[in-house]
Amino acid sequence: MKKQNNQPWYFNTFATQACDVTLVGSDEGLHILHLETGEGKKDGFIIEQDWIEDNARFSDVKQQLIEYFSGSRQDFDLSTPLAPIGTPFQQSVWHALNQIQTGSTCRYMDIANQIHNPKAVRAVGAAIGKNPIPVIIPCHRVVGANGSLTGFAHGIPMKQTLLNLEGVSF
């Protein structure tokens, strides 16, 4: 993901019980949450040379993710604004993902219907795959039409871990 403004971008990498996490953002808010699972993300996440390491930035996000992955938190209440960068269509899909309650799942067609575009199931899937802030924008809660675990940018095992943390068994 490339910067769309001239503001400096900052990053912070830390360990959780599930994997290492890298947070990236600017003064506008959090742009990227990358899970270091060794799987997924075909575009290859890299820390850009002009990003500035700042381990104090995004401290509320870091703390709440550590709590989430340890099983002591299920919902996020962040003071850091979320600022995912995407097209208007992607933004509408990501907004719809935020409506999925913790501990529940829905299907891609449910999201397409929610954004009033029922024929856009494949486009919804593509937008979900481009979600730059997984876990917090809960794309892991979307399952296949038959209820099976389907694609997740950070690997199916991580998707299953996230759902299990929320009490959904697969």
TrEMBL record:
Additional detail: This enzyme catalyzes only one turnover and therefore is not strictly catalytic. According to one definition, an enzyme is a biocatalyst that acts repeatedly and over many reaction cycles.
Family recorded in the similarity comment: Belongs to the MGMT family.
Protein keywords: Cytoplasm, DNA damage, DNA repair, Methyltransferase, Transferase
InterPro entries: MethylDNA_cys_MeTrfase_AS, MethylDNA_cys_MeTrfase_DNA-bd, MethylDNA_cys_MeTrfase_DNAb, MethylG_MeTrfase_N, MGMT, MGMT_N_sf, WH-like_DNA-bd_sf
Species the sequence originates in: Vibrio rumoiensis 1S-45
Pfam family for this entry, one: Methyltransf_1N
Methylguanine DNA methyltransferase ribonuclease-like domain location: 22-80
Main localization, broad class: cytoplasm
Catalytic activity: a 6-O-methyl-2'-deoxyguanosine in DNA + L-cysteinyl-[protein] = S-methyl-L-cysteinyl-[protein] + a 2'-deoxyguanosine in DNA; a 4-O-methyl-thymidine in DNA + L-cysteinyl-[protein] = a thymidine in DNA + S-methyl-L-cysteinyl-[protein]
Active-site residue numbers: 139 (nucleophile)
CC per GO annotation: cytoplasm
The protein's enzyme class: transferase
Domain named Methylated-DNA-[protein]-cysteine S-methyltransferase DNA binding: residues: 88-168
Job of this protein: Involved in the cellular defense against the biological effects of O6-methylguanine (O6-MeG) and O4-methylthymine (O4-MeT) in DNA. Repairs the methylated nucleobase in DNA by stoichiometrically transferring the methyl group to a cysteine residue in the enzyme. This is a suicide reaction: the enzyme is irreversibly inactivated.
Protein name: Methylated-DNA--protein-cysteine methyltransferase
